[in-house]
Amino acid sequence: MGRAVSVATCALNQWALDFEGNLERIFRSIDIAKRRGARYRLGPELEICGYGCSDHYYESDTLLHSFQVLAKLLESPATQDIICDVGMPVLHRNIRYNCRVIFLNKKILLIRPKITLANAGNYRELRWFTPWNKARHVEEYFLPRIIQEVTGQETVPFGDAVLATKDTCLGTEICEELWAPNSPHIEMGLDGVEIFTNSSGSHHVLRKAHTRVDLVNSATAKNGGIYILANQKGCDGDRLYYDGCAMISMNGETVAQGSQFSLNDVEVLVATLDLEDVRSYRAEISSRNLAASKVNPYPRVKVNFALSCSDDVAVPTCMPIQWRHHSPEEEISLGPACWLWDYLRRSKQAGFLLPLSGGIDSSATACIVYSMCHQVCLAVKNGNADVLADARKIVNDETYVPEDPREFCKRVFTTCYMASENSSQNTCNRAKLLAEQIGSYHINLNIDAAVKAIVGIFSMVTGRTPCFSVYGGSSRENLALQNVQARIRMVLAYLFAQLTLWTRGMPGGLLVLGSANVDESLRGYLTKYDCSSADINPIGGISKTDLKNFIQYCIENFQLTALRSIMSAPPTAELEPLVDGQVAQTDEADMGMTYAELSIFGKLRKIAKAGPYSMFCKLINMWKEICTPREVASKVKHFFRMYSINRHKMTTLTPSYHAENYSPDDNRFDLRPFLYNTTWSWQFRCIDKQVNAL
Length: 694
What we know:
- By secondary structure, the protein is of the alpha/beta class.
- The protein folds into three domains: 4-302, Nitrilase/N-carbamoyl-D-aminoacid amidohydrolase; 328-446 and 489-579, HUPs (Rossmann fold), CATH 3.40.50.620; 592-693.
- Helix content is 41%, strand content 17%.
- It contains 24 helices and 20 strands.
- InterPro entries: C-N_Hydrolase, C-N_Hydrolase_sf, Gln-dep_NAD_synthase, NAD/GMP_synthase, NAD_synthase, Rossmann-like_a/b/a_fold.
- Residues 5-275 form the CN hydrolase domain.
- Keywords: ATP-binding, Ligase, NAD, Nucleotide-binding.
- One of its GO terms (molecular function) is ATP binding.
- One of its GO terms (cellular component) is cytosol.
């Protein structure tokens, strides 16, 4: 009697449209699963083409190449004697579906289309796919000739069905279906399905991992069963980092946990579990059994194959484990670092350049690059041949072995302090000391000559010379002179990124890193086309509060003592003249609000879906101990004025690592106008009326 089933799930670092690389990683995962004794292998969502193809899903090429890859998988001896579950887009009756294709020994068993599509936040699946709305219904799918030639099948089942093997029953969920209130696993479990599979394309957000884990464990806690989750990992071509966390759960408890952040392109989990544990668990839940007796049955696809062996009494099975979650500071250290590594190696550039100001934001960005160097050295030490090969390509040395993070940092990371007459010696010293401690190649330069040249051209043409407000100039003059400095730094950053390695006799160019945090972007506290304009930004989705905590984490874990003085200094742009050699300008004074307040405004605006009036109503209770209703009204109005005046800056925002659900990223996550009526007359009048009533 077979009862111990061996199943495998994986996290793969797939890349949109990299069919050759994706196929190779799928093959590697199947090989590992078979060598570890698994009889079923589950992969991530849309793993054949890569999840992030976006509008490429409209192209017939994407469908064609996906079937070509499927044919390679079907005909390979590597996929024999193991049920393989892979993801790809499929066109059925001229409708495009997000599907799982499940096959065994050169025969397709079932094509299962996604029922509930992800269509919120970063996801736009309804733009490219149609959900399968025919519950428990199966149709014939006519296979393309390229597949018929391999399988000998003309048609295969397509629809909402489950697989009945010789020893158990398996049902499929795809990503969003786990998060839906009416998840398929509920009805499938009542109909006797014992193993649930979920193929995900789920991205990292700070403090999100526990939600995913809780959903998986709760799926089998009430209903019993085995739940297997696979996920994409890495940067597959855009702002998201898919954070792995492949897992296997049984009866509400985790039995196998994959890593959330790693540089391994292929990670496979295998677990051997006792089906009798599922059956005995379900036996005593009378409410479940009463509901099961009335359930509408699923179509079953019979499979002449077993996930267990007939003589498995002595086979050891997996025991529950305690899930280990990362702290938010660890997540910031690891997630953006892995995202940067993927971007660097896949863009085939030679490293990064960062304008390092000596403030918290650029210092946090530098620390993330340093963390990346740590991860690379650790991966090489642990025998990761892929990482070693990529590192050698990046530094253009076929014999190089990265062993010391500081030494590797020197090769791939250039920092640049761009001083002006408004810069203090303190920030210059902080930037230099941090660069020494992380090992970056550091440049000190002065931009005053360029600033004077630009302003000189303006004066020559107009006959007028603008002045800072401390010298009697207007606010317009003051702002324009600050912006000139900021924009010159952007131009110089790109010049040095292109030519610094040339001056050092090294090949290649550098990617420019931005370092504007999510709160500054929300408020618009940045110059359009200044150093916030870069190639990519690893902290653009992270709040100032979290960055401060991350800096403290780096002090303790990387022994970067230079960060202590950076932590204690007030944030400043250093764009206005010094007073007695000391900084007089601070960020929070300039913005008219604190960073803590900005985080609250951002979460209420995006996550709580609050307009000006609703935000005011929520804050008069949240802040009742510290602010009068009139003060709350003033703060809310100021935020919305500044947000709407500066919203146009989001249209040119540097692509940023997505880490917060209140990100103002205009590209796809936060779709709003960029030309507002900034008086908000009706909304503010409602607030005033409420203030007067209070």
